[in-house]
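User: I've been trying to design a sequence by hand for this structure and keep getting stuck. Would you show me what you'd pick, starting by listing the structure so we're on the same page?

Assistant: Good idea, let's start from the same input. This is the structure you sent:
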């Protein structure tokens, strides 16, 4: 009985380390997003850190339009980054979870 618990604890610790390593790796996963007309481009990491923003000269002439473009494009990039982040972390966590009845549906 205690051997099973110790084995599970070891597996959970190993999984936690893998999750942390995955989080670090996600700093290097870049997601590019652009406005529909490509006047604004954003690059963000899977950890939702903005790496670059490219703005067309055309957008610099209209502050309100630029603000709208920034909000829409950055939000789309954050949504994509969040999806990548969650799926990567869930995959690592699911892989390392011990077989506990009732918990098999958590990471689907």
């Amino acid at each position: 009985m205690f051997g099973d618990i110790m084995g599970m604890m070891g597996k959970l610790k190993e999984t936690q380390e893998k999750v942390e390593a995955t989080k670090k790796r996600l700093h290097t996963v870049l997601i590019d997003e652009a406005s529909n007309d490509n006047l604004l481009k954003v690059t963000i990491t899977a950890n939702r850190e903005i790496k670059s923003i490219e703005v067309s000269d055309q957008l610099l002439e209209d502050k309100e339009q630029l603000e709208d473009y920034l909000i829409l494009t950055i939000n789309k990039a954050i949504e994509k980054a969040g999806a990548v982040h969650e799926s990567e972390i869930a995959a690592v966590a699911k892989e390392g979870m011990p077989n506990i009845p009732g918990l098999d549906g958590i990471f689907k």
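That's my pick for every position. To get oriented when you compare it with your attempt: The beta strands are 30-34, 40-45, 50-55. Residues 3 and 101 are 18 Å apart (CA to CA).
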